[in-house]
Amino acid sequence: MASLYNPLEANKIRLLAFIDDTGTNCTLEKVYLNDAPPYACLSYAWQDGQTLSTPVAQSTIMINGQLKSTRPNLQDALAHLGPIARSNGHRFWVDALCINQDDLVERAEQVKIMKHIYEHAETVMAWIGPANADTELALGVMQAVSNFTHELFNRNTQRTALHLWQAAISRQPFFQNRPKSDVLVGWAEMVQMFKALYWGRTWVQQEITGNNAVFYCGPWSFTWKELHAFNEFHGTYGGLRDMPDKYMLMISGGVNVGSPFFDLHVAEKNRTTSSTSLAKKQKLMALIRELRLTHCSDARDKVFAALPHATDVDQVHAKDLLAVDYSKSVRDTFLNVARYYLEHGDLEILGYVGANCHDHDCRPPRGAEESPLPSWVPDWRIPYRIRPLNTGGRSDRDYPMLYNPLPHSTAQLQVTSSTLQIYALIFDTLRTITLTAGREYVPSQLKIKWGKHMKAWSPNLTSRDVKRILNADAQWSADEVGNARGEVIDWEFLDEPIEKMRPEHRYWRHNMRHVLRSVCRDRRAGRTKGNRIGIFPEAAVPGDVIAAFYGGHALYVIRPEQDRQGIFWMSLQKKD
Predict the structure, then answer these.
(1) pLDDT class for 53, splitting at 50, 70, 90?
(2) Residue 124 belongs to a domain
(3) What average pLDDT does range 195-204 have in this prediction?
(4) pLDDT in tens, 334-358
(5) Is the pLDDT reported for residue 164 higher than 90?
(6) Domain Heterokaryon incompatibility, which positions (predicted)?
(7) d(CA 487, CA 476)
């Protein structure tokens, strides 16, 4: 029997053509990407179910007269979406079927052009999963929110109570002849839909963050227009204290079950904006950081999925270190990212190593590597949101640099194999740190909880000093109110009831909260032996030393260990 996969020439791709409306009987043909007939791309979760540990069964489809094994979720997607593509005269591109997954060279070459494959598609068909009895109600809620969001947000009065916005949705055509309880059933089902495994995929940010994506849940579909309206609505009303937990996208401990979707929303806004200033901010390390909470079957894809969108990487000169290469191990792939930045004198990469903690929940799966990563290399598999303090708390821009501990200095380092030698001034030691981590409380609560500790440690510390520490002394906007350095956050404004705010003030407050959460997330307040007060990485412990690296734009926390050369975390101390 002839192989389905003959060698694929450069700049060619394979496309499926459906023979009938079953979606499981098709042919496979090779075409040049630039001359390809109209085609649709499929975006879906390879793994079925809600968790990655779900056992995987196998199904089969017919390609060129040969049976091909597939996962059930892919077969469901083909059965639902294949007839739609066929009726529109579209071929179909599916990574699992159109790429020879057993050929590492072909796989790498296709991944390099995958961004262009999706951009050239007539449409991207995103398969969320099969529908259930309440899916129609969930999509009805989403459409209703999309219909009245613009009108609602231009009113002076605010609908803050659950029963008020429930009544507003009930007046939309879809719900007019239904009981009000259907609104709540639909909303709860929509919350469940945003918990679906699909939204947290690593590759989904590359696949659907364009204007041509249509999302399918069984026979029902929606677009980014509905998702943007829902995001705007949820940003205003979704976190209200009087809304029952099951209708919120928040669960206990401040963990946002909808965060994969909201991360996608930010990525889509960034990638479709016409502002050239935003494109310049797409640093590879920041893009990989945004993928830390996503899941993929191959950890190397955390890097490879980010590479096409990075604007700070010279793909020609960096090909030896950063080329898509599935013959390299996860260890070498992550090590090469760190080496690339360090060899260019950029120490910011060290600020992402704070996730390499010893908490069992943060460790990669056992057996994931044949040898451990060097202590100075970020482990991008760890689902951790910490970011360096000299980078943006805003999704669409960077902070101005906070300050340079060693003005006008340049990085002095040597990278050889898996060893980093770096010159620094060690000048203090961590003495005390709070038990309260930044992710556990909203900013106004942190001001109280951390402020009490800080003032107890240093009675001369003023409230203004505490506030400057909490926002890392960085301005959150260059063109909006309250942007004086060190006076970024108006705390009275931050805590003002939402129903008293004008729409533009809600937007400002949202950005202020985002800055504070970005600065304080996964960090703790602490004091050094030199009586310096500041915020430290969550994994820091008393006895860790504080250092200023030549060429760095923040201070670092270092923990010497007997079996490893050192572990680095980026942190900011109160400026002397």
Answers:
(1) very low
(2) yes
(3) 87
(4) 999 999 999 888 888 888 887 665 4
(5) no
(6) 39-207
(7) 10
What pLDDT score does 563 carry?
55
Contact 207, 43 (CB under 8 A): yes
What DSSP state is assigned to residue 564?
A: S
- pLDDT score, position 504: 65
Residue 139: DSSP 8-state: H
Could you tell me the two tokens for 261?
């979707």
Q: What is the 3-state secondary structure (H, E, C) of 375-395?
A: CCCCCCCCCCCCCCCCCCCCC
Count: domains in the chain = 3
Does this model's pTM top 0.85?
no
Examine the domain organization and report whether 37 and 98 are in the same domain: yes
Residue 243, pLDDT score: 52
| Strand-pair partners of 66 | 63
Q: What is the mean pLDDT of residues 35-58?
A: 73
Q: What is the pLDDT of residue 568?
A: 46
| CA-closest candidate to residue 94, choices 55, 130, 127, 65 | 127
Q: What is the pLDDT of residues 15-28, one digit of tens each?
A: 999 999 998 999 99
How many angstroms separate the CA atoms of 207 and 120, rounded?
11
In contact, 81 and 44? CB cutoff 8 Å = no
* Angstrom distance (rounded) from CA 553 to CA 395: 20
Query: Which of 158-167, 359-368, 541-550 is modeled with the greatest confidence?
Result: 541-550
Same domain as 552, residue 424 = yes
Residues contacting 563, CB < 8 A, separation 6+: none
β-pair type (255-256, 250-251): antiparallel
Domain that holds residue 190: 135-201+224-268
Among 100, 129, 158, the domain boundary falls at 129
Residues 148 and 246 in one domain: yes
> d(Cα 138, Cα 11) in Å, to the nearest integer?
41
Same domain as 411, residue 299: yes
Angle at CA 225, nearest 5°, toward 224 and 230? 90
Q: Are 107 and 51 in contact (CB under 8 A)?
A: no
Residues of 90-121 as b/e, b for ≥16 C-beta within 10 angstroms? bbbbbbebbbbeeeeebbbbbbebbbebbebb
Contact 40, 125 (CB under 8 A): yes
Which residue type occupies 443? Answer: P
Strands, E, within 108-154: which ranges? 123-129
From the list 423, 266, 333, the residue with the least C-alpha distance to 111 is 333
How far is it, in rounded angstroms, from Cα 211 to Cα 119? 10
